[in-house]
Design goal:
It contains twelve helices and 16 strands. It has an eight-stranded mixed barrel with strand order 7-8-10-11-12-13-14-15. Helix 4 packs parallel to helix 6. It is of the alpha/beta class. The longest helix has 24 residues, at 161-184. The relative contact order is 0.09. The termini are far apart. Strand 14 (311-314), helix 11 and strand 15 (333-334) form a beta-alpha-beta unit. Bound molecules: ligand C2E and magnesium ion (2 copies). Ligand C2E is lined by residues 121, 137-138, 149-151, 154, 167, 170, 194-195, 197, 228, 258-259, 282, 315-318, 336-337, 342.
């Protein structure tokens, strides 16, 4: 083994030919112990300690310079954890950080290069047979990987400033789209909903930013814009979120509580958040035909919505039978693959024109 002083109070130890990873541990313990032995200088006793950063080659498969940098990073962790200890560089964690950094860069460039698009999924009234609106759902038109669903990229930026930028792009694009459809004169005036991320809703200037965006589209009546918030968004501060929602509603914008029933305190949110629409989460709807518990939840949510005078829509309506069952329970609004999949904006006018409710729903 080699020990070298590379400057100041920094040393490098190279332990060669370890059979297994754990074999380095007794040596590291001995080094710590040796370094922490009190030293007498004249009348003074000095107590020093060492902090050691460790990396293992070839698990950490990089060149000598990078190996040194990794031990350095690990050493800082050892110092932060109270000194007089060693810390092993985590290649798995380091890889994860690198992957995350790469994804963030890719999303940044996708934003700059206009690779995001909005798809729209119709929402209908099954009983009277009208299309009541559409939900805007983001997609990434990736140059190599094709069309990506939000699950592939939104989690990366969940708590990142880019989420706010992307969210503003979504609202702006949806407003432009509403205005375009209005000019074309669709069969029904469509209310368009957009999904709002928690970080975005919690921004102190959320309302101001919405005012600015609405002002940039003076031909769009705010009542045609609906904001879908996850009930989990409110977890931190229901009071704050409900104030923001009330301010936005004064502008004429509507709110929906998305994925209703999946959070911790659905009832509290229902009572305290002024959303006009609640969306029954698709996990309950999907299995309501063969799971009595899910059916009971769907029934319960519909009854709750009625008592609280909110509209209710079922998401994830995958078949005609789901629709029929929902109608029997008194839920008329629906959205799901059984009615239409999300589609590009350009397909919406023809779809809206042609759609007819299933005959069994009459
Ligand atoms: P969500 O808002 O609850 O949207 C419904 C999701 O269910 C969409 O997935 C939709 O394509 C899918 N879906 C609709 N009908 C059915 C059905 O019958 N069966 C099944 N299995 N799925 C159905 P998508 O587009 O992949 O979006 C997933 C989630 O990502 C959304 O859930 C929403 O929370 C989030 N999201 C989508 N677009 C945006 C956006 O622009 N901003 C933010 N912050 N979140 C977004
Ligand atoms: Mg939604
Ligand atoms: Mg949902």
């Amino acid at each position: 083994d080699s020990l070298a002083r590379i400057g100041g109070d920094e040393f490098v130890v190279v332990l060669a030919d370890l059979v297994k990873v754990e074999d380095c541990e007794p040596i590291l313990e001995r080094l710590l112990l040796a370094a922490s032995k009190p030293i007498a200088v004249g009348d003074i006793v000095l107590n020093v300690s060492a902090s050691i950063g460790v990396t293992l080659y070839p698990q950490d498969n990089v060149d000598a310079d990078l190996l040194m940098r990794h031990t350095d990073q690990a050493m800082y962790v050892a110092k932060e954890s109270g000194k007089n200890c060693y810390h092993l560089f985590d290649t798995v964690q380091d890889d994860a950080i690198k992957v995350k950094r790469k994804s963030l860069e890719a999303i940044r460039s996708a934003l700059d290069n206009q690779q995001f698009v909005l798809y729209y999924q119709p929402k209908v009234n099954m009983r009277i047979g009208t299309v009541v609106g559409v939900e805007a759902l983001i997609r990434w038109q990736h140059p190599e990987r094709g069309l990506l669903n939000p699950i592939e990229f939104l989690p990366v930026i969940e708590n990142h400033a880019m989420m706010i930028e992307l969210g503003e792009w979504v609202i702006d694009t949806a407003l432009s789209q509403i205005s375009q459809w209005q000019k074309m004169g669709l069969k029904y005036p469509l209310s368009t909903s957009v999904n709002i991320a928690t970080v975005q809703l919690q921004q102190s200037d959320f309302t101001e930013s919405l005012i600015r965006q609405l002002a940039a589209h003076p031909d769009v009546e705010p009542r045609y814009l609906e904001l879908e918030v996850l009930e989990t968004s409110a977890l931190d501060d229901v009071q704050h979120i409900s104030t923001i929602m009330n301010d936005c509603m004064e502008l004429g914008v509507n709110f929906a509580l998305d994925d209703f029933g999946t959070g911790y305190s659905s009832l509290t949110y229902l009572r305290r958040l002024p959303a006009s629409l609640i969306k029954i989460d698709q996990s309950f709807v999907r299995d309501m035909l063969n799971d009595a518990d899910d059916l009971a939840i769907v029934e319960g949510v519909i009854a709750l919505a009625k008592s609280f005078k909110r509209d209710v829509i079922a998401e994830g309506v995958e078949t005609i039978e789901h629709g029929t069952a929902l109608l029997q329970l008194g839920c008329e609004l629906a959205q799901g693959y059984g009615i239409a999949r999300p589609m590009p904006a350009s397909d919406i006018p023809a779809w809206v024109n042609d759609w007819k409710p299933d005959v069994s729903w009459e």
